[in-house]
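Entry:
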Amino acid sequence: MRDIRRDLMDRLEEISNRRKQLVEELEILNEREAINRAFLSEEERRWRASEPSLPSRPKESRLRIKLVTGTPVRNFILEMLGDGSPWSIERLKAAAEERALFKPEQKPGWALQGALMSLKKGQIIETVEYGVWKLVKKDAPSAETDEAPDIEGSA
């Protein structure tokens, strides 16, 4: 019968080393979190002092507003479709890649499709044919004038 005690001790040592690495990483993350929370707190204090006339919105509303306002992908689509011509998803992907809108690990098709569906739901764009889109309204919000609806209190 083979003695595996040494193998088990080596495995336990590996586990211990890995645990130490993870604890160090967790400490770094905790430190970064604390720094960013302090920066956010200071920025909110500074913002309230410089803009006393603006009502303070609950955190939930601020998050929703951030999601409703124009994202880079949404603004990109509005800009491209703003020329009035129909755009296929392939054409949009090619233009997005040309502008390096996405990181290499991202999937541009998914992001573009999600933004297109959101814009279609908002009746800002429409499908000309499968995979081809066009702007519905000429007065649709552009990347520069895109405004979020006032949703304070609806969170």
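The longest strand covers residues 125-129.
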